[in-house]
Amino acid sequence: MSAVETHPAIPYLPTPEERVEGREKVTGHARYAMDVPIAGALWAAFVGSPYPHARVVSVDAKRALRMKGVRAVISGKDTAPVRFGRRLQDWPILAHDRVRFMGERVAAVAADTRELAEEAARAIEVEYEELPPVFTLEAALAPEAPVLHPERASYLYLGGGEPPKTTHPNQQGVVIHEHGDVAAGFAAAARVFEHTFEYARNHQGYLEPRGTIVWIEKDGVVHVVTTNKAPFTLRMQLSKALGIPEETIVVDAGYIGGDFGGKGLSIDEPALYFLAKKTRRPVRSLLSLSDDFQVTNPRHPGTLRLRTAVDAEGRILAHEAHVLLDGGAYAAGKPQAGLIPGDAGLLLAGYRVPAARVEVVTVYTNNEPAGHVRSPGQPQSAFAADSQIDEIAREMGIDPLEIRLRNAIQPGETDITGHEWHDHLAREVLETLAREMKWDRPLEQRSLGASALDGPAVPRSSTLVGRGIGYCARHVGRGKTELEVEVAEDGCVYVITGAPDQGGGAHTMLQRVVAAELGLPVERVRARRGTTAETRHDPGVGGSRFTPVAGGAAIDGARRLRAELEKLSSDLDEALRLAAERHLRVPGMFDQTQSRYSVCAYGVTVAVDRDTGQFRVTDAVLVADVGTVINPVAHRGQLEGAFAFGLGQTVMEDLVIEDGRVVTANLDGYKLPTMPDVPPLRIVLLTEDYGPGPFGAKSVGELANAAVGPAVANAVRDAIGRRVWSCPITSEKVFEALSGARG
Amino acid sequence: MSRHEIRFELNGEARTAEVEADRLLLDLLRADLGATGTKEGCRIGICGTCTVLIDGRPISSCLYPAVYADGRKVRTIEGIAPDGGKLTPLQQAFIEQGGFQCGICTPGQIVSATALLEAHPKPTEDEIRRWMMGNLCRCTGYFGIRRAIETAAGTAR
Ligand code: FES
Ligand code: FES
Fold it and tell me: What range does the domain containing A633 cover?
């Protein structure tokens, strides 16, 4: 059960929305890449390396090529020197000199059927010469460590500017930020706290396998059907990697069956281009989820060392952080200039930080490459920083709520990035949470739930209960986009966008914003997604950007349309009729430049079995500062989904890699939360601090998953009197902590 | 590999197909018959995106040999609301209650929940959890799915 307590009044829009793609999705007619029929398409399959680090000596495809129905085999020799990536193009399409992680592709097959392609791939013989592997951060950064990318200087770095300056050849990315007088802050401190936290590797866990189809028309135009969530960006990356002009590539993304950050990196598309070129046929692939767990781009695991200086009342004076993350074999999954995951440097988000020095380093290893996952970098930073705040409170005998209130950032103050803060509700979020949790009253002892599915019933006497707060902030997305608004023959207004919908409700948002701005019933406005050849440039869904950026473009388009309509007639219906005859089409553009944040806080309760360490989150409250809500159903869904996503990351998900091998390589080993795993959640929205999005909207999709980690960590700490310093917080770790407490 | 001719009913229509002994029902439906409403996910029987009903019982079609469908009634998402027809109250509730986001798990969720409501027209919260735990959803956290089922069953609070 989940309940939204305060329902914001949305003056502009009827509530609730009906998703534009609702009917298609509930009847099985929504088209995903895997469903696109392409006559005569061949199937691709790949050969992956069984070694984490090895030289590729030879690839022998004779046996595979003799199989009836096998049309082509390519290896690194055919694709060299082409590499791909979102920013640094360091990942070879197929390994040509050496493989740097287990499962890395060395050859690809195109065959008449999927089964045959897989069989042929198994028949390809590859000879390797093993090289010493590097699995840990320490080993990678040792002075004598094998250099994993000696040719790094030759890699393409997209987006202008210089690649980050590194001081060790196995560093991928480095971002160092400093503001204020850090030394003075530490010198003036009443107390200084230093803690080290560990964070494991998580997978995005989308249930849709990545699907790709590539074909090349006679005129040379390359068509790409993809599950990539940023079609124009993919087009640019392919153009740069393959050395062909963007105009000759058409990218078509349909509905995307879950993205959670991972589907901004494409790994099949470039290889399929080579197969399509060689066979002159369309070639398609569907990456099995089990391969996806092994060869794509999960969240960065790592170590976070934090030092925080506080005054006698627990007010933060200065902060120092060293964040060291395992980037795996390639940096290709990271779009950020510094080649670190998104907000990995955003320690103490939502707090006032007068002085800070934050250093984030990503490291090359022979593990699976890491990339972006929902609010990239933030689950790690929030787990560490907001656990530390809690620890400081307990050490200093300050109430955990009170220490957060004392440090919650106010407008005009300086945040961890050294920037001035412009949002108003940080304190109010915490105060609301305190009321909702009845923080001033001690927690009642209670036993675990009665449901048999909730795990073995634990006798009351052995149950420890605790509660914790997790607090975090996330930026409202910035950037530019364009779309078009058209009056079609049917008299309806169409919003034409190049952005796919990966589930957030992007197209419904556009529809409702344009309808509200024009004063039309929503039934008269439709959203139409088109390929990169049919639409204006859009950066794709992600970066907490879609509503504030594309929503702004929708407003702009609606206003331009209204100006044109007013020229045609003062009567809206008459003007639309005339506009329909003329196929009136106007652009809509927006550049969102404001630095704004949303703040949220969780309060969770846990019940721990003292004897076994087994524990459950028994209930949760989320208070979120969200601005105006455009799509209330989707908005609530984003927050509820983020809670479950954050819970999975916090208590069960661990993409274990041992000696380079992904051990939990499908959903049997990598457990995602099921329906019985998710406890009740109450959501309270604060809507009065308007954001820069349409009608005052902020972003919500990536706001609420990161703070689940510290909330649970702090609740477990409260229950058992010991802290678990590494995420996920499993029952085994709780048991160990309890044993330590006993021993 | 031996080939077998099978006869079965797909969403009320008689069908025949020739399949190899190891052909999975999921592949028969999607690749051979073009019925792509049923989704491929993990292919190991965990996620539930491939759920279809065999004689009214939900199964994972990624584990189910197509030959077993011989003589049986197969019902997929395409057969829940007949083409162009009205949505069922459950489908409508999935739209109104936020029962989907990306939609990839939705065919499986709706097929499973349809069978649930046929077996238990007024399911308790526990019955819902128990029945639906074989259908994963990464997007919704299950809140909207449970609301949709309860709304369709008339048990929503
Ligand atoms: S695809 Fe059948 S259960 Fe996952
Ligand atoms: S709606 Fe996306 S997995 Fe369920």
Answer: 422-476+595-742
